[in-house]
Amino acid sequence: MTTVRHAIQFTDHGAVQSSFLTEVLKGLKREPKTLPAKFLYDERGSELFEEITNLTEYYPTRTEIAILERVKHELALLIGPEAALIEFGSGSSRKIQILLQALKDLTVYVPIDISKEFLYASSLKLGHDYPSLHIHAVAGDYTAPMTLPELNCRKKAAFFPGSTIGNFEPHEAGAFFDTVAAMLEKGDGFLIGVDLKKDIRILNAAYNDARGITAEFNLNILKRMNRELSADFDLEAYRHHAFYNEAKGRMEMHIISQKDQKVTIQSEEIAIQKGETIHTENSYKYEVEDFHNLASKSGFTAQKFWTDEKRLFSLHYLELR
Protein backbone atom coordinates (compact mmCIF):
# COMPACT_ATOMS: atom_id res chain seq x y z
CA MET A 1 0.00 0.00 0.00
CA THR A 2 1.37 3.42 -0.99
CA THR A 3 0.15 6.80 0.26
CA VAL A 4 1.35 10.30 -0.67
CA ARG A 5 1.61 13.32 1.60
CA HIS A 6 3.16 16.43 0.01
CA ALA A 7 6.73 15.48 -1.09
CA ILE A 8 6.63 12.32 1.04
CA GLN A 9 5.43 8.91 -0.10
CA PHE A 10 4.86 5.93 2.17
CA THR A 11 4.89 2.27 1.18
CA ASP A 12 3.87 -0.27 3.81
CA HIS A 13 5.23 -3.76 3.21
CA GLY A 14 3.59 -4.87 6.44
CA ALA A 15 5.72 -6.52 9.11
CA VAL A 16 2.69 -8.65 9.88
CA GLN A 17 1.43 -9.76 13.27
CA SER A 18 1.49 -13.43 12.31
CA SER A 19 5.23 -13.20 11.68
CA PHE A 20 5.78 -11.73 15.16
CA LEU A 21 3.79 -14.51 16.82
CA THR A 22 5.37 -17.27 14.74
CA GLU A 23 8.94 -16.12 15.34
CA VAL A 24 8.39 -15.51 19.06
CA LEU A 25 6.98 -19.00 19.61
CA LYS A 26 9.70 -20.58 17.50
CA GLY A 27 12.42 -18.79 19.48
CA LEU A 28 10.97 -19.51 22.92
CA LYS A 29 10.66 -23.23 22.14
CA ARG A 30 14.35 -23.45 21.31
CA GLU A 31 17.08 -24.50 23.73
CA PRO A 32 18.51 -22.03 24.59
CA LYS A 33 15.60 -19.64 24.16
CA THR A 34 15.96 -16.72 21.75
CA LEU A 35 13.98 -13.76 20.41
CA PRO A 36 14.83 -11.95 17.14
CA ALA A 37 16.51 -8.61 17.85
CA LYS A 38 14.38 -6.84 15.22
CA PHE A 39 11.36 -7.13 17.54
CA LEU A 40 13.08 -4.93 20.13
CA TYR A 41 12.20 -1.99 17.88
CA ASP A 42 8.53 -1.25 18.34
CA GLU A 43 7.67 2.43 18.81
CA ARG A 44 8.75 2.46 22.47
CA GLY A 45 11.82 0.35 21.76
CA SER A 46 12.90 2.77 19.02
CA GLU A 47 12.45 5.70 21.42
CA LEU A 48 14.54 3.94 24.07
CA PHE A 49 17.27 3.16 21.57
CA GLU A 50 17.44 6.85 20.66
CA GLU A 51 17.99 7.54 24.37
CA ILE A 52 20.76 4.93 24.44
CA THR A 53 22.59 6.67 21.58
CA ASN A 54 22.94 9.78 23.77
CA LEU A 55 24.38 7.97 26.81
CA THR A 56 27.91 8.73 27.95
CA GLU A 57 28.84 5.03 27.92
CA TYR A 58 27.47 4.40 24.43
CA TYR A 59 30.31 5.46 22.11
CA PRO A 60 29.15 4.15 18.66
CA THR A 61 26.67 6.88 17.76
CA ARG A 62 28.72 9.94 18.64
CA THR A 63 31.84 8.36 17.12
CA GLU A 64 30.11 7.51 13.86
CA ILE A 65 28.56 10.98 13.71
CA ALA A 66 32.00 12.55 14.15
CA ILE A 67 33.37 10.42 11.29
CA LEU A 68 30.43 11.33 9.05
CA GLU A 69 30.93 15.04 9.75
CA ARG A 70 34.61 14.72 8.91
CA VAL A 71 34.20 12.86 5.60
CA LYS A 72 30.77 13.97 4.33
CA HIS A 73 32.14 15.97 1.39
CA GLU A 74 34.41 13.09 0.41
CA LEU A 75 31.39 10.81 0.51
CA ALA A 76 29.44 13.20 -1.71
CA LEU A 77 32.17 12.88 -4.35
CA LEU A 78 32.11 9.07 -4.10
CA ILE A 79 28.31 8.90 -4.39
CA GLY A 80 28.04 11.64 -7.00
CA PRO A 81 25.07 13.74 -8.18
CA GLU A 82 21.45 12.72 -8.80
CA ALA A 83 21.62 9.65 -6.59
CA ALA A 84 18.98 7.74 -4.65
CA LEU A 85 19.99 7.17 -1.04
CA ILE A 86 18.46 4.08 0.60
CA GLU A 87 18.80 3.86 4.38
CA PHE A 88 18.15 0.64 6.28
CA GLY A 89 16.88 1.09 9.85
CA SER A 90 16.57 4.85 9.50
CA GLY A 91 15.43 5.51 13.08
CA SER A 92 15.28 9.21 13.89
CA SER A 93 17.11 10.13 10.62
CA ARG A 94 19.77 12.03 12.60
CA LYS A 95 22.72 10.71 10.59
CA ILE A 96 21.11 11.19 7.20
CA GLN A 97 20.95 14.92 7.87
CA ILE A 98 24.76 15.02 7.90
CA LEU A 99 24.85 13.47 4.43
CA LEU A 100 22.11 15.80 3.20
CA GLN A 101 24.36 18.74 3.99
CA ALA A 102 26.79 17.42 1.35
CA LEU A 103 24.41 15.66 -1.09
CA LYS A 104 22.79 18.83 -2.37
CA ASP A 105 21.24 17.28 -5.50
CA LEU A 106 19.95 13.99 -4.11
CA THR A 107 17.11 12.65 -6.30
CA VAL A 108 15.27 10.72 -3.59
CA TYR A 109 15.78 9.50 -0.04
CA VAL A 110 14.34 6.06 0.79
CA PRO A 111 14.26 5.31 4.54
CA ILE A 112 13.34 1.69 5.39
CA ASP A 113 12.39 0.73 8.95
CA ILE A 114 10.42 -2.03 10.67
CA SER A 115 8.87 0.43 13.16
CA LYS A 116 6.13 1.98 11.02
CA GLU A 117 4.98 4.65 13.48
CA PHE A 118 8.52 5.80 14.25
CA LEU A 119 9.37 5.83 10.52
CA TYR A 120 6.36 7.94 9.64
CA ALA A 121 7.03 10.46 12.41
CA SER A 122 10.71 10.87 11.55
CA SER A 123 9.96 11.12 7.80
CA LEU A 124 7.40 13.86 8.37
CA LYS A 125 9.88 15.78 10.52
CA LEU A 126 12.61 15.37 7.91
CA GLY A 127 10.20 16.50 5.19
CA HIS A 128 9.41 19.60 7.22
CA ASP A 129 13.10 20.40 7.72
CA TYR A 130 13.98 19.66 4.05
CA PRO A 131 10.88 20.69 2.06
CA SER A 132 12.56 20.22 -1.34
CA LEU A 133 13.71 16.67 -0.55
CA HIS A 134 11.73 13.85 -2.17
CA ILE A 135 11.22 11.13 0.47
CA HIS A 136 9.77 7.68 -0.22
CA ALA A 137 9.54 5.92 3.14
CA VAL A 138 9.16 2.13 3.19
CA ALA A 139 7.84 0.34 6.27
CA GLY A 140 9.01 -3.26 6.35
CA ASP A 141 11.59 -5.81 7.39
CA TYR A 142 14.76 -4.89 5.52
CA THR A 143 16.37 -8.22 6.42
CA ALA A 144 13.97 -9.89 3.98
CA PRO A 145 14.09 -9.40 0.21
CA MET A 146 11.82 -6.56 -0.91
CA THR A 147 11.10 -4.63 -4.07
CA LEU A 148 12.10 -1.00 -3.90
CA PRO A 149 9.82 1.70 -5.29
CA GLU A 150 10.73 2.87 -8.79
CA LEU A 151 13.66 5.26 -8.44
CA ASN A 152 14.48 7.66 -11.25
CA CYS A 153 18.13 8.26 -10.45
CA ARG A 154 21.62 8.13 -11.92
CA LYS A 155 22.96 5.88 -9.18
CA LYS A 156 21.83 4.17 -5.99
CA ALA A 157 23.69 4.22 -2.70
CA ALA A 158 22.64 2.18 0.33
CA PHE A 159 23.30 3.47 3.85
CA PHE A 160 23.40 1.22 6.91
CA PRO A 161 24.77 3.16 9.89
CA GLY A 162 25.06 2.32 13.56
CA SER A 163 26.86 -1.02 13.29
CA THR A 164 23.52 -2.83 13.03
CA ILE A 165 25.33 -5.31 10.79
CA GLY A 166 26.82 -6.62 14.04
CA ASN A 167 23.37 -7.80 15.18
CA PHE A 168 23.49 -10.49 12.50
CA GLU A 169 25.15 -13.87 12.85
CA PRO A 170 27.97 -14.03 10.27
CA HIS A 171 25.88 -16.17 7.90
CA GLU A 172 22.95 -13.78 8.34
CA ALA A 173 25.23 -10.83 7.59
CA GLY A 174 26.26 -12.58 4.40
CA ALA A 175 22.61 -13.10 3.46
CA PHE A 176 21.90 -9.42 4.16
CA PHE A 177 24.75 -8.38 1.87
CA ASP A 178 23.17 -10.61 -0.80
CA THR A 179 19.80 -8.88 -0.23
CA VAL A 180 21.34 -5.42 -0.58
CA ALA A 181 23.31 -6.46 -3.67
CA ALA A 182 20.04 -7.59 -5.29
CA MET A 183 18.64 -4.06 -4.82
CA LEU A 184 21.66 -2.43 -6.44
CA GLU A 185 23.41 -2.49 -9.80
CA LYS A 186 27.06 -2.62 -10.79
CA GLY A 187 28.81 0.55 -9.64
CA ASP A 188 26.25 1.40 -6.96
CA GLY A 189 27.55 2.15 -3.47
CA PHE A 190 27.01 0.87 0.06
CA LEU A 191 27.99 3.05 3.03
CA ILE A 192 28.03 1.04 6.25
CA GLY A 193 29.04 1.57 9.87
CA VAL A 194 30.96 -1.22 11.62
CA ASP A 195 31.95 -1.47 15.27
CA LEU A 196 35.53 -2.58 15.84
CA LYS A 197 37.07 -4.95 18.37
CA LYS A 198 38.38 -3.07 21.42
CA ASP A 199 38.93 -3.07 25.18
CA ILE A 200 36.28 -5.29 26.76
CA ARG A 201 35.68 -2.75 29.54
CA ILE A 202 34.49 -0.18 26.99
CA LEU A 203 32.11 -2.72 25.46
CA ASN A 204 30.63 -3.91 28.75
CA ALA A 205 30.03 -0.34 29.93
CA ALA A 206 28.24 0.53 26.66
CA TYR A 207 25.68 -2.26 27.12
CA ASN A 208 25.24 -1.89 30.90
CA ASP A 209 24.74 1.85 31.32
CA ALA A 210 24.42 3.37 34.78
CA ARG A 211 20.93 4.78 34.12
CA GLY A 212 19.54 1.39 33.08
CA ILE A 213 18.20 2.58 29.73
CA THR A 214 19.67 -0.42 27.89
CA ALA A 215 18.04 -2.72 30.43
CA GLU A 216 14.68 -1.03 29.87
CA PHE A 217 15.17 -1.31 26.10
CA ASN A 218 15.93 -5.03 26.37
CA LEU A 219 13.03 -5.80 28.74
CA ASN A 220 10.58 -3.75 26.67
CA ILE A 221 10.13 -6.72 24.35
CA LEU A 222 8.25 -8.49 27.19
CA LYS A 223 5.83 -5.56 27.39
CA ARG A 224 5.40 -5.71 23.64
CA MET A 225 4.55 -9.42 23.72
CA ASN A 226 2.05 -8.84 26.54
CA ARG A 227 0.41 -6.04 24.58
CA GLU A 228 0.46 -7.41 21.05
CA LEU A 229 0.37 -11.18 21.56
CA SER A 230 -1.83 -11.36 24.70
CA ALA A 231 1.09 -12.87 26.63
CA ASP A 232 1.25 -12.80 30.43
CA PHE A 233 4.93 -12.23 31.24
CA ASP A 234 5.49 -11.13 34.85
CA LEU A 235 7.53 -8.02 34.09
CA GLU A 236 9.08 -7.92 37.56
CA ALA A 237 10.44 -11.46 37.26
CA TYR A 238 13.17 -10.79 34.66
CA ARG A 239 16.39 -8.81 34.53
CA HIS A 240 18.74 -7.57 31.83
CA HIS A 241 22.16 -9.22 31.35
CA ALA A 242 24.78 -8.15 28.79
CA PHE A 243 28.37 -9.36 28.44
CA TYR A 244 31.18 -9.76 25.92
CA ASN A 245 31.62 -13.27 24.54
CA GLU A 246 35.31 -13.18 23.66
CA ALA A 247 35.33 -16.58 21.95
CA LYS A 248 32.70 -15.41 19.45
CA GLY A 249 33.79 -11.78 19.28
CA ARG A 250 30.41 -10.35 20.19
CA MET A 251 28.41 -8.58 22.87
CA GLU A 252 25.36 -10.58 23.95
CA MET A 253 22.12 -9.33 25.50
CA HIS A 254 19.92 -11.69 27.50
CA ILE A 255 16.81 -11.57 29.66
CA ILE A 256 17.16 -13.77 32.74
CA SER A 257 14.21 -15.33 34.57
CA GLN A 258 14.32 -14.78 38.34
CA LYS A 259 12.02 -17.71 39.15
CA ASP A 260 10.41 -20.84 37.73
CA GLN A 261 7.35 -19.79 35.77
CA LYS A 262 4.97 -20.61 32.96
CA VAL A 263 4.03 -18.04 30.36
CA THR A 264 1.00 -18.19 28.10
CA ILE A 265 1.21 -16.63 24.64
CA GLN A 266 -2.24 -16.84 23.11
CA SER A 267 -2.96 -20.60 23.35
CA GLU A 268 0.66 -21.71 23.83
CA GLU A 269 2.26 -22.32 27.24
CA ILE A 270 6.02 -21.89 27.68
CA ALA A 271 7.90 -23.11 30.77
CA ILE A 272 10.82 -20.93 31.87
CA GLN A 273 13.11 -22.02 34.69
CA LYS A 274 14.78 -19.83 37.29
CA GLY A 275 18.12 -18.63 35.90
CA GLU A 276 17.16 -19.53 32.32
CA THR A 277 17.98 -16.88 29.74
CA ILE A 278 16.25 -15.55 26.65
CA HIS A 279 18.91 -14.41 24.20
CA THR A 280 17.66 -11.20 22.54
CA GLU A 281 20.59 -9.65 20.69
CA ASN A 282 24.16 -10.07 19.51
CA SER A 283 26.52 -7.32 18.46
CA TYR A 284 29.51 -8.72 16.61
CA LYS A 285 32.71 -6.66 16.56
CA TYR A 286 34.98 -6.82 13.52
CA GLU A 287 38.51 -6.32 12.37
CA VAL A 288 38.58 -4.24 9.17
CA GLU A 289 40.07 -6.99 6.99
CA ASP A 290 37.57 -9.58 8.21
CA PHE A 291 34.68 -7.26 7.42
CA HIS A 292 35.95 -6.54 3.90
CA ASN A 293 36.33 -10.27 3.28
CA LEU A 294 32.71 -10.82 4.36
CA ALA A 295 31.41 -8.08 2.04
CA SER A 296 33.44 -9.33 -0.91
CA LYS A 297 31.59 -12.66 -0.88
CA SER A 298 28.45 -10.80 -2.02
CA GLY A 299 30.22 -8.88 -4.76
CA PHE A 300 31.21 -5.72 -2.86
CA THR A 301 34.65 -4.12 -3.14
CA ALA A 302 35.95 -1.82 -0.41
CA GLN A 303 36.67 1.57 -1.94
CA LYS A 304 37.56 3.42 1.25
CA PHE A 305 37.14 3.25 5.01
CA TRP A 306 37.56 5.68 7.89
CA THR A 307 37.99 5.31 11.66
CA ASP A 308 38.23 7.63 14.64
CA GLU A 309 41.58 8.31 16.33
CA LYS A 310 40.99 5.65 18.99
CA ARG A 311 39.85 3.07 16.38
CA LEU A 312 36.61 2.44 18.23
CA PHE A 313 34.41 2.55 15.15
CA SER A 314 34.69 2.42 11.35
CA LEU A 315 32.78 3.65 8.32
CA HIS A 316 33.14 1.85 4.97
CA TYR A 317 32.22 2.80 1.41
CA LEU A 318 31.75 -0.33 -0.68
CA GLU A 319 30.95 -0.63 -4.37
CA LEU A 320 29.10 -3.43 -6.13
CA ARG A 321 31.39 -4.88 -8.76
UniProtKB/TrEMBL annotation:
It is an enzyme of class 2 (transferase). Transmembrane segments: none annotated. It comes from the Bacteria. It holds the Pfam family Methyltransf_33. Residues 22-319 form the Histidine-specific methyltransferase SAM-dependent domain. Keywords: Methyltransferase, Transferase. Its EC number is 2.1.1.44. SUPFAM superfamilies: S-adenosyl-L-methionine-dependent methyltransferases. GO terms for biological process: methylation. GO terms for molecular function: L-histidine N(alpha)-methyltransferase activity. This is L-histidine N(Alpha)-methyltransferase. It comes from Metabacillus flavus. The lineage of its organism: Bacteria, Bacillati, Bacillota, Bacilli, Bacillales.
